[in-house]
Amino acid sequence: MTDRILEFLRNRREDGPCLVLDLDVVRENYMSFSRAMPDTRVFYAVKANPDPNVLELLAGLGSCFDTASVVEIEQVLASGASADRISFGNTIKKERDILRAYQLGVRLFAVDCEAEVEKIARAAPGSRVFCRLLCDGAGAEWPLSRKFGCDPEMAPRVLEHAHRLGLTAFGLSFHVGSQQRNPGMWDGALKTAATIFRDLAERGIVLQMVNLGGGFPTRYLKNVPAVKAYAQSITRSLHKHFGNQIPETIIEPGRGMVGNAGVIEAEVVLISKKADADKVKWVYLDIGKFNGLAETMDEMIRYPIRTAFDGDSTEPCVLAGPSCDSVDVLYEKEPYFLPVSLEIGSKVLIEGTGAYTTTYSSVGFNGFPPLKSYVI
Questions:
Q1: At 15, is the pLDDT very low, low, confident or very high (cuts 50, 70, 90)?
Q2: Is the distance from CB of 38 to CB of 232 less than 8 angstroms?
Q3: What sign results for the dihedral spanned by CA atoms 94, 47, 106, 203?
Q4: CATH architecture designation of domain 260-375
Q5: pLDDT tens digit sequence for 102-119
Q6: How far is 326 from 323, CA to CA, in rounded Å?
């Protein structure tokens, strides 16, 4: 929460929920990553928040970009960044999209199987590829599934196949889980990566890069370590497992870059009970899972919520969105404590919402418009 955001909201006269994102916070986050990890290139994960103002700021600061689609590639190019600063980091790509990325100048692609390697060899000959490894997401508030990555035992074969097809077997990547609050979780993945580096070197294939992925957290209800703590832990692990042969490294912060830069203002639509004897109230907001708060799924991300009544006595509440869908409930398993004095029509501020909110609210489900966004 910044004074600039509060001032903007005080002067706002429109109705409906909105996200307000402060570019000064994004700038400071980028500089924090750069200072803490000066030998590592930053590839901002565009999917976290692709607002043109964010992309233009980061492009001007010298950031590179991790993209998941041709549209994101085009958005980055429109921001002023050159194609050599773009990674096509999605391991699931149509061959025609690989070709389009190649035509736009992209030469760095992620893979996790031989079939994907073959598509890139046909559509983007001579490009550099890195193989994504399956990784344990223990300790992350938003653990990743087995959708992306391959077993480490497969990776040498995948990269050797790329080498034989004329591609540059460039490196490895992994992701330790989004909102990872344990800086030590990179150690095991780096140990595995170093083993694969040595294995392929014995076959005459010299890898050059380790993509450390994302996972760098933003603060919600729980404190998180500073970027410096992650940098120190990762550096120790790199020296432990690679010795003096430290590879090129890149990171892909998304949430850690923009999460704490944004605040959503929402309104209380209804406060009710389901039975007279209930001790828990239901508080319905004009924003829910389908309007930008999809990461409350399974109550993994618990956003800080501020009200004008903070400091009053509180009571347990179920928090839900406005849509006519029964899954549009944000917090029920573990009730959220809100002020007893909260009223229908009250405004609430949902903090830490700069990442993965506008992108999850791109369709007007139930006729509710996509989440408005203001970048200041």
A1: confident
A2: no
A3: negative
A4: Beta Barrel (2.40)
A5: 999 999 999 999 999 999
A6: 8
The sign of the CA dihedral 289, 293, 296, 300 is positive
The helix/strand/coil state of 133 is strand
User: 280 Cβ partners below 8 Å, 6+ apart?
Assistant: 273, 315, 316, 317, 318, 335
Please name the amino acid found at residue 11: N
Torsion of CA 212, 229, 218, 280, to 10 degrees: 120
Fold of 23-258: TIM Barrel (3.20.20)
Please give the positions annotated as active site: 324
Handedness of CA 134, 117, 241, 215 (dihedral sign): negative
Query: What pTM did the predictor assign?
Result: 0.94
The model's pLDDT over 266-277, given as tens digits with 9 standing for 90+, comes to 999 999 999 999
Per-domain residue ranges for the chain? 23-258, 260-375
Between strands 108-111 and 128-132, the pairing is parallel
Q: Report the first-to-last Cα separation within the chain, whole angstroms.
A: 13
In contact, 97 and 139? CB cutoff 8 Å: no
pLDDT at 142 over 70: no
Q: Do domains 23-258 and 260-375 have the same CATH topology?
A: no
Q: What is the secondary structure of 230-275 as a DSSP string?
A: HHHHHHHHHHHHHTT-PPEEEE--SHHHHGGGEEEEEEEEEEE-SS
Residue 139, pLDDT score: 64
Question: Could you give the CA distance from residue 238 to residue 249 in angstroms, rounded to a whole number?
Answer: 10
58's enclosing H/E stretch is helix 52-61
